[in-house]
Amino acid sequence: MIGWTASMISYIPAFLRGLGIIYVIIPMVIQLWPGIVRHVAFLNFLCPPNAYLQLSEPHAWKLINATNIYLQCRSAVHLGVWHLAPLDGSSLCLADAEKVLIYCHGNAYHRAERHRRQLYQLLQDLGFHVISFDYRGFGDSSGTPSEEGIIEDALDVYKWTIERVKNPHCQILVWGHSLGTTVSTQALLKLQSENFPRQPDGLILEAPFTKLLEVMYEYPLSKFLIVIYPKWLILSIIKAAVDKNRLAFNTVECLPKLKMDMLILHAKDDKRVPYQFGHKLYKTLQSGSKCHSCKLVSFDHSHGLGHNECWSYHGFSDIVSDFSTAVKESKCHGFTTVDF
């Protein structure tokens, strides 16, 4: 036993040297391969092989009144798109739709992820035609994601949808979740600057953030690195990597320029994108913006909704339905907050 202990002790110097080498290498790796930060931002590699996904068959995911389309974009990228018609079967064709919602999902996985499907079904039950798609490099969509690229994808899907909606009174809403909040915001700002003839009637942002750099500082890995390294070093390395990858995702700069009604949804126990970001966006809009109205709905920690489960709140359908009705009847006014 004494011999075994002495043998173990003899390894301690080598172990400590190994830790020292790792300590030095980690910051160097991020500096030398800044593409790591891009992978962390998109997480599109967190996805099973397409052969196992069956994304071309929505019914395999137990979705009703759903069809799959492959849309070719301007950049010769093919996007996997789902059109989910209302559950009651009252309208299966986009041409005569009364309500359409275009959904921009967050990072990681694909359009069939569980919490996304749960939301689609809730929206279908409310009478919406739901258009959901995977950005380039996600799911069964081709290409490689970039900030400019996935914003272009959202624009192309929006315009494709509008071309097929023939009802002039159809309500058009856009919903962004997490990464999708900045994608939808920037895409709609481009639409607005183009004076596109059919602008959306409202924008719903679920778990939004101000800008990528700020939210990346809140990542668990970033927080861990800040504990073991000088804070200034880690923050400067992350910033340099974000800049080199041309990833701004600056929602706080773009959102105040949009001219429409908005609804912000955020759970206070969201650990991936903390509630402070959604609240800051609301305050920014309130202090000076072109938006017609904005309502901030927050969900208390006690509900345990986190980052992905807002849809499961028992009154969630009413929140969405009330917003849709208020937009349609032009009853959205000013800035309001509601806590559940």
TrEMBL record:
Pfam families: Abhydrolase_1. InterPro entries: AB_hydrolase_1, AB_hydrolase_fold. One of its GO terms (biological process) is phosphatidylserine catabolic process. Keywords: Membrane, Transmembrane, Transmembrane helix. The keyword Cell inner membrane does not apply. This is Monoacylglycerol lipase ABHD12-like. The gene is Abhd12. One of its GO terms (cellular component) is endoplasmic reticulum membrane. Residues 100-192 form the AB hydrolase-1 domain. GO terms for molecular function: monoacylglycerol lipase activity; phosphatidylcholine lysophospholipase activity. The keyword Transport does not apply. The chain crosses the membrane at residues 12-33.
